[in-house]
């Protein structure tokens, strides 16, 4: 069974996408932990940004 260049490239891209997804998931987990630690800061930060956006 021979793999064409396109299939090989596709597999490579697929592996990169999976690595990228893993990276995003780990970042999400870190952000969630940060939010739990800084819940008060984050809520104040978000509301100030929302009011600023509404004023524009």
Task: Please summarize what this structure is.
The chain has 56 residues and is an all-alpha fold. The chain is built from 2 helices and no strands.
List the helices and strands and how they pair.
Layout: H1 5-37, H2 39-55
Helix pairs in contact: 1-2
Structure description:
The chain is mainly α and 56 residues long. The protein is built from two helices and no strands. It has helices at residues 5-37, 39-55. α1 crosses α2. It is elongated. The mean pLDDT is 77.
Features:
single chain; 56 residues; mainly alpha; 0% strand; elongated
Discrete helix count = 2
Fraction of helical residues: over 70%
Largest pleated sheet: none
For the record, give the distance between the C-alpha atoms at the N and C termini, rounded to a whole number. 61 Å
Strand content: under 5%
The shape is elongated
Gyration radius from CA atoms, angstroms:
20 Å
What is the N-to-C order of secondary-structure elements (H for helix, E for strand)? HH
Mean pLDDT: 77
Q: Tally of extended strands?
A: 0
| Secondary-structure class | mainly alpha
Low-pLDDT stretches are: none
